[in-house]
Amino acid sequence: MAESTFIVTRVCSQGETVSSSIRSNPSSRFSDENKRKVILIWLDAHYDETEHDYQISLNEFQHLANDIHTFIDPDVCINFLTDINDQTKKIILIIDGTFAKEVVPLIEDCSQINSILVFRNDTHQYKEWSKNYPKVKGVFTGIYSLIKCLEQIIDPNYFTMIDIIGPSNINSDYLNTSFMYSQLLKEILLDIHTENRTNRSSFIKYCYEHFPTETININNFDTNYTKYTPIHWYSAHLFIYETVNRALRTVDIDLLLKMSFFIGDLHNQIEELHSTTQLKERLTVYRGQGLTKNECKKLETSIGGFISFNCFLSTSTARGISNMFAESNSSIHGCNGVLFQIEVDPEISSSPFALTNKYSHFSSEDEILFSTHTIFRIDRVTEGNDSFYYVNLSLTNNQDKNLCELIIHRREEIQGQTSIHRLAQLLYRMGKFEQAKDIYQKLLGVAVPLDEILYLTHYIARIDCHMGNFGQALSQVSLALQFNDGRNPALTADVYAGMGEAFLRHDMLEDSLELYQRALRIAERSQTINDHSKVLYLNNIGFVLKLLNHYTDAQTYFQKALDIALARFPPTHPDTANIYQNIGSLYFDKRDFYLSIDYLNKALVIQQLSLPPDHPSLGTIHYNLSKAYVELRQWNEAIYHGQLAVDILKKTFHDDHFEVRQAQAHLDAISVMQRWLRSSDTSQRRAFAHVISQVVSKMFKEEK
């Protein structure tokens, strides 16, 4: 990974300038692009680069900005500020309380300055004073809270990875599928921690590579990890705090695996403290942060719904501190300051939380820390003045009954020998095929039992089919079939089904049908093969029969699959959606487009309730809906679903993937067709007709 250079300029009282360059990795906190947009100016009468506290502060600032200037003379600092002409830069001044009342009135109206933060002084002394100066975003006594405020000023979207679910989504107790999958992921990570709680070497290696200026702290963390509590480490070093929450927010699987030991330890400590703390009265805590304007509007329309923070959630019993964090975001373009007021009922203990001041590196801060992915109900949203919102939340354990049932069913489906196996299964069902394949291949490298090798080979082949690597898939299942001894009926049936899918992708329909039927016969004779597999085989047999134009037989198999799914699966199970989609496709082939759309919409509703929003299956169903609307000449609907298909499929597959090419060619064709139909110019219509013939020809090739 490329390195970047930090420019640190120190200016003494005589105006003498000393600059130094520090090389560091740009991935340590923000993107290099974000860091280049910031000039950080630090005015402190007591600044001494040889003192440990100042070294720590400067080190933390270097994670946030590439261009840092320190001053001990206010006149020199003001001259420097007023000479800056670069309007593309976000200038932030950190000022020692010694100078604040003298300097701030002189520079408050300076257009170059975005924000002012007062550091190291009594907050009560400056609280009322700071209200007269809108650019003063807060008065801070500790580096920890100041850094968190800086992060939000530099990148307002830094902490906005949240799920907001309104009551209009099915009912007021509904929680979305993103939450379901994140809950399952959290469970697996905690299990991985239990199975491998002492291995932190890969994370230490990652830290040395990505935080080269943190060498001393990383070594301290590695050497003395067991001497201090996880909460201490979480609060002591920002590179740990930031990396944990970034990995959770972005679902960075590789990083989450490296940090699973710490995520588990931190969660367990919070859980232990929560279980031993006797909270007798309701507790009110606060959190201030920035949200985009769209997210605030969504909150306003989601009263009675839910919000889930995809990170370990820091809150405070001190309203004033949280209010400062919120206010620091209210003047940022495109961002609103939000003050969350959270009511905690001691009778509701589904989500662990703990008061951290006895264990935190910053014991003076009255922080309440919630474990990751805690759910809150949105009780009230009030819009204040100057882009500011007040949001009342309450801790809840209410969940949608159907979603809970689906979580239980999904949990059963992703069982495996180890938590790593379960993680690969979960990623596969989330449509994260490349990440799942990477784990399967690593497991295959150490697999010894024959059943384990066959199992892993089978899933790698299935992923290859999804990714369009049909030749590789056929090779994998052929190899699996050679090694299969038939002693494990479920695995044998899966291998036959995998080969059936590979043959299907090669247009070898008769061979594919025979293999699927063989898998079904094994499943029907075996007591150990689950309903999920039987439904899969029945559905796939119906699909191949449809391709062979045996519509009546296809309908029979689809109905058998649907009967089992409706009787045995939760109402929103994705397998049921797959059957509805195939029935919709069958009616499309029979040119009953209205009935086709009815079934496709049934499938779409279930998929939206059971799959992540970027799952490729959603792209496929939007593509099929678009085709049906084309046949009905409903161009706006066709283009709407066609565009959604392309957008969703591109989130999983590369542009050259057969499904992406197919969906894009289809969208191009109907877009040109719509323009052609609207044109009254004869020559234009002829030109469009030529383009249409080329695009449609390409589309038919992609279909094959």
Short characterization:
This protein is α/β, with parallel strands linked by helices and 704 residues long.
Can you give a write-up of this model?
The protein has 704 residues and is an alpha/beta fold. Among the domains are: 4-154, 3-Layer(aba) Sandwich (Rossmann fold), CATH 3.40.50; 174-275, no CATH class; 279-402, Toxin ADP-ribosyltransferase, Chain A, domain 1 (Alpha-Beta Complex), CATH 3.90.176.10; 636-704. It is 58% helix and 14% strand. The chain contains 29 helices and 16 strands. The strands form 3 sheets. It has a 7-stranded mixed β-sheet, sandwiched between helices. A hairpin with a 5-residue loop joins strand 1 and strand 2. Helix 6 runs parallel beside helix 14 (319-330), helix 7 packs antiparallel against helix 16 (419-429) and helix 26 packs antiparallel against helix 27 (635-652). The longest helix has 24 residues, at 253-276. Keywords: Repeat, TPR repeat. InterPro entries: ADP-ribosyltransferase, TPR-like_helical_dom_sf, TPR_rpt.
Layout of strands and helices, then pairs:
Blueprint: E1 4-11, E2 17-24, H1 32-36, E3 38-43, H2 52-61, E4 67-71, H3 74-83, E5 90-96, H4 97-107, E6 113-119, H5 123-130, E7 136-140, H6 143-154, E8 162-165, H7 177-195, H8 201-210, H9 215-223, H10 230-236, H11 238-250, H12 253-276, E9 283-292, H13 293-300, E10 306-309, E11 313-316, H14 319-330, E12 335-344, E13 353-355, E14 367-370, E15 375-383, E16 388-395, H15 401-413, H16 419-429, H17 433-446, H18 450-467, H19 470-483, H20 489-505, H21 509-525, H22 531-547, H23 551-568, H24 574-589, H25 593-610, H26 616-631, H27 635-652, H28 658-678, H29 682-703
Parallel strand pairs: 1-4, 3-4, 3-5, 5-6, 6-7, 12-16
Antiparallel strand pairs: 1-2, 8-10, 9-12, 10-15, 11-14, 13-14, 15-16
Domain ADP ribosyltransferase: 241-385
Protein name: ADP ribosyltransferase domain-containing protein
Keywords: Repeat, TPR repeat
